[in-house]
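Predict the 3D structure for this chain.
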Amino acid sequence: MTGSESARTYPTRPYLAVSAAIFRDGRVLIVRRARPPANGLYTLPGGGVELGETLEQAVIREIREETALAIEPVGLVGFRQAIARDDAGRVERHFVILPFAARFIGGAISLNEELAEADWLLPAELAALKTTEGLAQIVAAAAERIAALGGP
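Done. Predicted structure below.
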């Protein structure tokens, strides 16, 4: 565990993170986490915002680091709060996650060690997966945002 990862376990404050619902030909990129938090669950790629980054810079960087893809973020589509408590009730992790709708620009998927798999899925296919809380709603909001801007 790196120093920044250990600081995020039993934190003294919430951590800000971003994610992206990336659309390509009507499909969204869904990834499966390979380690905590959310180990084994299907979700959107993303991660922590670094000091001095805008939210847009952070989501572009995180997607590149996790998947090697280039994206164009087009707007925020909500928020999620991920708060995990241990058996004693202490806050073990606390993230505020700002998901973006994004367009695929280019690249071939190459996952980093945080992710076990990735696939381009139709939004309706999410119902068959074990996902992070609220994923289908975020993807639906992102799909509406992309459609309002003129398609995938």
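The beta strands are 15-24, 27-33, 42-43, 46-48, 70-76, 80-85, 91-106, 115-121.
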